[in-house]
Design the sequence.
């Protein structure tokens, strides 16, 4: 009944008071022993949901505030610096005030595992910049990080309630998805993937005006100034990048706060607006993002990307055009990207508010170095030199104790392969496969690895194109 009324009224407050909303939250909270996991992105919607819940629980007697409430925020490690600073400050305040007020809240910042981070995938593995047709980032950077936390809590408690600050009025698709998973005669919904998790959306019937009306009339209980949040939105003219917990929840797009490096959108209007409104120190990030976006221009892809896919095969578009579907970024271009990123980091540290700000973490650099050496034939071990040239100092690099090949072997092998007209990358890959099973008592896997390597396309792009130009198949 409430949702029907909401659909016909401009504001939820026309038919439901804030006290009634608090009462509903209290009823849901006290109904069972399932802990709550609140998705908090620092934006207006998630802030409204968290603030409503905080005041509702605060009204309960202390002895009834026993059920744990986790406040999780996903840091993709490529968040806009202005936003991540705001979120970090908010999480710190939430934990401080929760302890002082004897509230059951605990704020936790989630990050992707290093081997799945944005830079490890982009610069390490060579994944092309995300696009509308290949948005590999959302699952790895947001969904999986939230999933791991939810699964851990399910393992610990048996069941959980995930609280999201999402609204039906955001879009018809959002409303349809929310209604699809609704449990009959309940304010809870089924989680789209985890049967032991339920979803509660306390602001689902709020309009955007309701959100701002509540935030500007009700002070933040953990000490933030909600007018600062409004100013942040005005300066970026942005929407909110939600905590993404499944594939049905859209990630960022158009002029939304989110990852500063996002190339899914044509232009980063939020970043441009921040710069226009006085945050000029962010310009190196916008320049890098635009540089990355250029690699998606069809006529330029051959400059940046391998003509083979990651499995070593060549694949054509299904449209019959004869165009190759290009693979990962070339290693040399990945080196250029890393150099540009480190140079941007120097500028951000120099001109921004934090002289120690990292665009890329040391742990990511170590992982990229390992990948280049083991998977991409970088026997020159070029990453430490790239870092030293850009930053002017060394990291505490791991000394090779695994018998990695070096630049001496690289130079020698280059000469030998050239003399015998054998692809250098093929020999490197075969030797690396052998090195990885060296010393093992069971070596049966080496034969299938060698088979896979030899079945890859080892001709140069020019040789391959010349051979196949007269008889292009629809797909290889």
Sequence:
């Amino acid at each position: 009944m409430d949702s029907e009324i909401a659909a016909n009224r401009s504001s939820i407050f026309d038919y439901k008071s804030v006290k009634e909303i608090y009462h509903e939250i209290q009823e849901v909270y006290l109904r069972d022993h399932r802990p709550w996991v609140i998705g908090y992105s620092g934006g207006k919607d998630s802030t409204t949901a968290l603030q409503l819940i905080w005041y509702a629980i605060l009204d309960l007697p202390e002895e009834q505030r026993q059920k744990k409430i986790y406040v999780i925020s996903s840091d993709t490690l490529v968040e806009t610096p202005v936003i991540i600073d705001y979120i970090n400050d908010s999480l710190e305040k939430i934990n401080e005030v929760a302890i002082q007020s004897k509230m059951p809240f605990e704020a936790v910042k989630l990050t992707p595992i290093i081997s799945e981070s944005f830079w490890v995938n982009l610069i390490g593995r060579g994944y092309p910049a995300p696009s509308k047709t290949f948005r590999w980032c959302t699952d790895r950077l947001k969904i999986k990080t939230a999933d791991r936390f939810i699964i851990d809590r399910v393992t610990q408690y048996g069941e959980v309630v995930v609280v999201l600050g999402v609204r039906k009025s955001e879009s018809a698709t959002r409303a349809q998805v929310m209604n699809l998973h609704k449990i009959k005669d309940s304010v809870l919904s089924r989680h789209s993937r985890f049967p032991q998790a339920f979803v509660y959306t306390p602001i689902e019937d709020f309009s955007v005006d309701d959100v701002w009306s509540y935030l500007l009339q009700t002070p933040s209980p953990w000490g933030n100034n909600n007018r600062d949040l409004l100013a942040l939105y005005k300066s970026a003219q942005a929407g909110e990048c939600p905590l993404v917990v499944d594939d049905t929840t859209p990630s960022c797009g158009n002029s939304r706060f989110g990852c500063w490096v996002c190339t899914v959108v044509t232009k980063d209007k939020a970043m441009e607006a921040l710069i226009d409104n006085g945050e000029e120190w962010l310009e190196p990030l916008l320049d890098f993002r635009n540089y990355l976006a250029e690699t998606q221009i069809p006529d330029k892809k051959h400059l940046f990307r391998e003509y083979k896919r990651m499995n070593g095969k060549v694949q054509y578009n299904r449209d019959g055009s004869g165009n190759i579907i290009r693979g990962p970024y070339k290693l040399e271009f990945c080196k250029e990207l890393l150099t540009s990123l480190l140079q941007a980091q120097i500028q951000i540290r120099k001109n921004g508010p934090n002289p120690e700000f990292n665009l890329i973490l040391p742990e990511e650099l170590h992982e990229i170095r390992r990948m280049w050496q083991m998977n991409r034939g970088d026997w020159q071990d070029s990453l430490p030199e790239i870092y030293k040239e850009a930053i002017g100092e060394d990291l505490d690099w791991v000394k090779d104790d695994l018998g990695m090949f070096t630049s001496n072997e690289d130079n020698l092998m280059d000469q030998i392969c050239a003399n015998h007209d054998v692809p250098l990358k093929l020999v490197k890959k075969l030797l690396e496969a052998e090195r990885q099973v060296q010393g093992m008592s069971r070596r049966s896997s080496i034969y299938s690895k060698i088979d896979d390597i030899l079945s890859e396309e080892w001709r140069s792009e020019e040789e391959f194109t010349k051979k196949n130009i007269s008889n292009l198949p629809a797909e290889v």
Observations:
- The domain at 2-236 is CATH 3.40.50.620 (Rossmann fold).
- The CA atoms of residues 380 and 407 lie 4 Å apart.
